[in-house]
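Let us walk through a complete example step by step. Step one is to write down the protein sequence. Step two is to encode the small molecule, zinc ion, as a SMILES string so that its atoms and bonds are unambiguous. Step three, shown after the inputs, is the structure prediction itself.
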Amino acid sequence: MNKREKVLFVLLLATLIIVILAKAREDCDQPIYVAITIDTERDVPPLLNSFKGMDEGMPLLLELLDKYGVAGTFFVTGNVAVERPNAIKEIAENHEIGNHGMYHLEALYTLSYEEKYKRVESSTILLEELIEQNISSFRAPGHSCDTELINILEEFGYTVESSAYKKDSYPYHPSRTDWTTAGAMEILRIPVSNTPEYFYPFFCYGESWVTAYKYVVASQSEKDKMLVVVGLHPWEFCEMDLGEEYYATQRICGAETYEKLEELLLYLQQEKVKFITLSEAYELFK
Ligand SMILES: [Zn+2]
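Step three: the predicted structure of the complex.
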């Protein structure tokens, strides 16, 4: 081996060692997954009967997700599927469609077993016929899940229920007799993250979403993989006139939410987190 060959050999060896060390570091780091979820419903239900969020807010939100290469999970209500079918079909081309119940009127836990069953059945058929795909993720309207509902969802083949409820928001398989505690059901609960409040714009008002994100990550430091679930609504991306009584909701609508989301997505892109949909999260966390 001449001098030039020796230098080349040493350089090659050094490169190889650096690559192996970098890979080993990657492997021992806890991976962080982020799911952006969107409750795709009429404006501020049950307050309004308009679809300004779908018509004006949704295009802005979709553009932002597209800019950062994020596939989200859109929980669509039956009545939005009826009123805005083409918008939902278009979203389904690049994102996961989940079920957000039929009407978004009363809380599902106030209804009889038969009525809950009917609502799940009719919204599932409606959405699956519209997008010509199976639906596997559900979030109860107003996060109004209960034990009867989770059993109905499993019967229909749903693999994810994503209502916010538990203090600890890490994914868990619920018990057949109490949906809020861990048990042996196949379906996986993947709640909206706690920041310590839920990770929705109105709960994060006045604070950076990056700070809220860091809180969730810190709260999962003992887990071998982490999952941050962000909750959004299309109506939060345009100005809404809700009057004095609902000013707390109104103040986050428009530029505030748009800017906070873009700041978070930019940060997450730099951090190289992995964006996933909730059906992908099921495969990783089941
Ligand atoms: Zn909702």
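Step four is interpretation. Residues 39, 41, 100, 104, 141 surround zinc ion (CB under 6 Å).
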